[in-house]
From TrEMBL:
An MF annotation (GO) of this entry: tRNA 2-selenouridine synthase activity
Keyword Amino-acid biosynthesis belongs to the record: no
All residue ranges annotated as the Rhodanese domain in the record: 14-130
Protein's UniProt name: tRNA 2-selenouridine synthase
Native species: Alkalibacterium subtropicum
SUPFAM superfamilies per UniProt: P-loop containing nucleoside triphosphate hydrolases, Rhodanese/Cell cycle control phosphatase
Amino acid sequence: MFKDVSPEELYHLKNQDHTLVDVRSPKEFEEATIPGAINIPLFSNEERAQVGTTYKHEGQDAAKELGLEIFSKKLPAFIKEFKQLGTPVTVFCWRGGMRSKTAATVNNLMNVPVSRLTGGIRGYRNWMKEQLNTLPLPPLYVLNGHTGNGKTHILHQLKAEGYPVIDLEGMAKHRGSIFGGIGLEPNNQRMFNLFLGEALLSYQDRPYILIEGESARIGKIIIPNRFYQHKQTSPQLFIELPIEERVKNILSDYSPSDHHEQVVDAFHGIKRRIHTPVAHTIEDALEKKDYPEVVKNLLTYYYDPRYSHSSACDEDLVTSIAGDSVEEVTEKVKQLLSSKSIELKSESVK
C-alpha cells in the first residue's frame, strides 16, 4: 500500500533524491504547482473538461466510468513514465483526492516506490501560508538604490558564491516596474508565496538573508505584509553606480531591441506622468530606436525623482556603497557583510 505524506514531510523529501509529480491536467499545472514538480497528467485538458461536463450533467458515477475508460487506455504509457524517473515519487492533485489516489495505487501495484501528498496542492499551500505567518524571520540586508544600479546582478553573484539570497523579482518573474514584465512570463501570487515560504524555510539556520529593495507590489504580486514590514525596518545597503553603467545594465537586462513594441506600449502607460518636452524627446528616441537615449532620459526625469521621493527611511539603517562597476560594488558588499557577520557572532556569544 502506498503511504500518505504530510506537507511538512513533503518539503523535506524535496531536498532528497525524490520526484514530485503533479497528476493534474497540463493547464492546471501551468497555472500553479509545487515548486520543482513535474507533470504526468491522468487526463489532458480536453479529457478533464469532458469528465467535468459528465459529472455536472450525469453525476459522479457516470464521470468515474468515463474517467476509467479514458485512463485505462493510457495506463501502460503512464506507468512507463513513472518507472523512467528512477527515484521514489510523491504524487499529488488538487485536494489529494481521486486523481492522486489512482496514480499512487496503480504505481504501487507495479512496484514503483510512491507516496501521496495529503490534502494535495491545496494542503501544501495552506501549510506554507502558515509558515509565512509564523516562521522566525532572520535579519535582512536590503540592497537598495536607483533603477539600473545592478542590485539583481549583485544578488545573483552572491548567491552563486553561497550567500543566503532571496530573489523576490526572480520569484515573481517580474522586474517590478512598468517595464518589468517585458520578455517574461510573470508568476501568480500562489507560486510566489510557495517560492518565498520555501526559501525562508531553507535559510532558518543562517545569520541573515540578502534581498533587493522592492515596493509592496512586484507587478501583480503583493509581498506578504509580515515579510514586507520586516524588510522596511532592516538595514538598507544603497548601491550607487555612474549613470552610464546604469544605462548599460538596463540595456543588458531588458534587451529593448528584441521587444520594441512592448517597450513602446509600456512607455505610453507612463507618458502622461513625464514633463511634456521630455516625453517628446523619449518618444523621438524610441522611434529612432536609440535605446541608450531612451533609458538615460527615463532614469533622469522619471525613475530617479520617483525613487528619491519614495525611498525615505531611517537614516540609521542606511549604508551607501558606491563604485564604478557592479563588480567593484559587489566586493564592497562582501566586505561589509564579512564585518557584519563578525558583529552578529559577537552578539550571539553575549
